User: Which sequence fits this backbone?
């Protein structure tokens, strides 16, 4: 497309855009199980839109120009820290998403190891189930990535991870809980090893930070996963997942707020004066910060607990429904609102092809194969329809059409 000579009229413009959108995932109809985490509540959507709109044009690059933004960012960090028991000496910043929070945590640990222990060629040790953001951070920051195979129960292998740690290890991590199967890594054991070895430990709660604290309050038995464990040095928490903010809102937390200086880039040799940023971006959208602040204050503890009840009831309905299909089984022991299922007798990808035909967007896991679902409160309305279609797809599946058919 080249830039049009004359601008389009507004009606034509939006008609064009709506046409283009027609082929996108039907998330408002509950068809999508990752990427978007809708509450299904119009009032929450309205709060997000109004807050984003209020800060549509502002730029979070310069906190001196927009002190309201700086204060909101600090509030979001503090509220999130409160959920995961960040000590008084701790601190953090917002980031554009989980990947950027993780990148900042790895950067801080790389530079601390370099400055305090003289580590020049560092490595990070993580289970293969860790989010790809850890491999990406290692790649960007020129660290050696050491992915360690997970156990048969799909959790991090504590002994194998301990064996992989050496004098050049700058960071270990575990997921609470992980994206591929929704299972909790043994955060306590892993973080104790890191503590003994004097290295950083990142508890990745990009999903869990806005799930596990509420489940604890609702009386669920949740193994320790946060700063109450003395070995946990960093955590990541995505407000744009189960915090229900719009995309572009995550928090990275450090046990000691002084470590944030390793995250901040400051440059003084520039004709435009002092330049400093806490994350990768320069100019930074203000809308996601405002939306995160707004939704957290709008929902409050009571609102999150209410949504959590809906979320877990829906997860139970889906789990029971999937387990009642003899060909299928849930993988591992998922703790929250995430289910991955597979089959020992039929081709799950062939089932997924038929689900695709009915508009459902399940993610295909590999090694081992499985179908992956991040459940949202919106799915409460659609669980029965999903299970009916899943039963139909299991009964009628043929052969998998293969990757190419999926993307054509
Ligand atoms: C456990 C975990 N960590 C990190 C991330 C990366 O987050 P983002 O996609 O916001 O960069 C995700 C995303 O799903 C995740 O589930």
Assistant:
């Amino acid at each position: 497309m080249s830039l049009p000579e004359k601008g389009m009229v507004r009606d034509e413009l939006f008609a064009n855009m709506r046409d283009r959108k027609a082929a996108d995932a039907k998330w408002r109809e509950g068809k999508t199980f990752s990427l978007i985490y809708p509450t299904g509540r119009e009032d929450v959507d309205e709060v997000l839109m109004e807050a984003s709109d209020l800060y549509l044009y502002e730029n979070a690059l310069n906190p001196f120009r927009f002190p309201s933004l700086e204060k909101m960012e600090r509030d979001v960090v503090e509220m999130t820290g409160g959920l995961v028991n960040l000590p008084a000496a701790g601190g953090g910043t917002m980031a554009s998403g989980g990947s950027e929070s993780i990148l900042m945590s790895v950067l801080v640990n790389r530079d601390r190891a370099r400055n305090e222990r003289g580590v020049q060629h560092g490595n990070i040790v993580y289970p293969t189930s860790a989010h790809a953001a850890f491999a990406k951070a290692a790649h960007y920051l020129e660290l050696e990535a050491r992915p360690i195979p997970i156990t048969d129960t799909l959790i991090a292998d504590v002994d194998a991870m301990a064996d992989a740690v050496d004098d050049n290890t700058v960071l270990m991590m575990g997921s609470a809980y992980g994206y591929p199967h929704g299972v909790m890594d043994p955060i306590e054991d892993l973080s104790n090893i890191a503590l003994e070895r004097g290295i950083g430990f990142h508890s990745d709660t990009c999903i869990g930070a806005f799930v596990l604290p509420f489940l604890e309050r609702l009386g669920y038995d949740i193994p320790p996963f946060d700063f109450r464990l003395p070995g946990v040095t960093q955590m990541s928490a995505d407000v744009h997942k189960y915090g229900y903010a719009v995309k572009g809102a995550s928090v990275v937390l450090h046990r000691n707020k002084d470590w944030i200086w390793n995250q901040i880039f400051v440059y003084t040799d520039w004709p435009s004066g002092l330049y400093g940023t806490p994350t990768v971006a320069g100019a930074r959208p203000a809308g996601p910060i405002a939306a995160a602040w707004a939704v957290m204050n709008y929902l409050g503890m009571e609102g999150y607990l209410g949504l959590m009840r809906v979320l877990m009831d829906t997860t139970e309905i889906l789990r029971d429904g999937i387990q009642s299909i003899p060909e299928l089984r849930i993988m591992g022991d998922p703790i929250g609102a995430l289910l991955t299922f597979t089959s020992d007798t039929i081709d799950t990808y062939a089932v997924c092809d038929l689900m695709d035909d009915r508009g459902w967007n399940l993610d295909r896991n590999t090694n081992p194969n499985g179908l992956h679902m991040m459940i949202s409160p919106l799915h409460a309305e659609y669980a029965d329809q999903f299970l009916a279609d899943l039963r139909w797809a299991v009964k009628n599946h043929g052969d998998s059409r293969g990757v190419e058919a999926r993307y054509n």
Observations:
- The chain has two domains: 29-40+300-407, 49-296.
- The first strand starts at residue 91 and ends at 95.
